[in-house]
Amino acid sequence: MISERPAQKPQVDLVALARVRVRRSWVLLLLWLLIPGGAQAQLRGHGGPVRALAISSDGTQVLSGSFDTSAIRWSISRNAAEQVMRFHENAVNAVAFLQDGRMVTAGADARIAVWSAGKSQPNAVFEGHTAPVASLAVSPDGAWLASASWDHTVRLWPLNGGTPRVLEGHSQNVNGVAFSPDGRAVISVGYDAAVRIWPVAGDGSPIVRQLPTPLNAVAVTPDGEIVVGGADGKVYFLSPEGEMRADVQASATPIIALAAAKDGALVAAAGIRGTVTVVERKTRHVQKSLVGPGLPVWSVAFFPDGRTLLTGGADRMLRRWNAISGEPVDIVLAGAPDDPLAAYAGDRGAEVYRACIACHALMPDDGNKAGPSLAGVFGRKIATQPGYRYSDALTKMDIVWTPETVAKMFEVGPATYTPGTKMPEQTIGSAEDRKALVDFIARATVTK
């Protein structure tokens, strides 16, 4: 049945509990990331765990969403962030590319934003959900956007304008949503262990299948097979009508993210303890388990070639993998073409600063990004960089930026040192790394 209904208080599920633990622990993981010789990084710029991923149809761009409340559009050819989008008041849980090149982000603030490339504010905002939005899907014809929410509903938003439809029936959090290949059905899964197959035309009741475990993610292959990730660590394979075909034990812990290759040959399942298992769909055989993709892995996506996998996790990095061999692709970002820190290769302070480069420019000509430019920052009063809109709380502070005040901020964290800031919460526990960072900023941001 399709109907409007009053908001209900969302339930707490395994993903929610893990989310709380991650928020408490990712700062500790940051310290590990600052140790030379850490894991092979791909794209680094988020200030928190990477919660969501999407890849453009031509494979040249990636969109990532994070617990740090931001989304970033990346250029794969340049290995660099091209656009940082800040709008949501809480974690960005889901992202998607539209067929016309626009982007969609959805957050724990229950809002959905539609963006154009290069714009600092969304073109449109969809409001109606009353709890976090956990998943997004775009119909094959580009006419509909589907959203799954912890308010127990799925919503269908007409992208050419009009009133959204509310799909009601789940009794607990809806964690995943996907369209059938022909676009005639939208499939949703939830913590109530239900798979619901809804007719997009609204001309009938949904098919409902109960599985033996709460469900956290769903993907659909080109031939219509439904792939579901369970809290029991299993990947379930269902027919387009929802009939059980097979299950594969992919992890000892809950599956929290799924992706199917464009050709349907491979499925990747990410577990809450950091495992990513690649399953050959035809044989239902576990082909490979990736080693070292971050703990936990919150998001996975295949590139159009069907063999290159992208992962995002609690270590704040996006990593590319050869899904066949299980090996990482392109070991490091440093020194890549157009890398603004390429001239500082081997500089410890520059490596620490790499986590800041997506939001803060170093030179005056680069202007403000998601955060204000740091050109000439030392000696400048807080919240006075021209052309940048600061939060009201910062404009009332009397802090002057010096090596000592910047180091102190990263020692105790921005939320403690500058309450009300929009800056993602992060600390640097090593005094040596804090000193290396401020020494680098002093050298790199001197204006003539």
UniProtKB/TrEMBL annotation:
PROSITE patterns: CYTC, WD_REPEATS_2, WD_REPEATS_REGION. WD repeats lie at residues 43-84, 85-125, 126-167, 167-198, 290-331. Pfam families: Cytochrom_C, WD40. This is Cytochrome c domain-containing protein. Residues 344-445 form the Cytochrome c domain. CDD domains: WD40. The keyword Plastid does not apply. Keywords: Electron transport, Heme, Iron, Metal-binding, Repeat, Transport, WD repeat. Coiled coil: none annotated. Signal peptide: none annotated. One of its GO terms (molecular function) is heme binding.
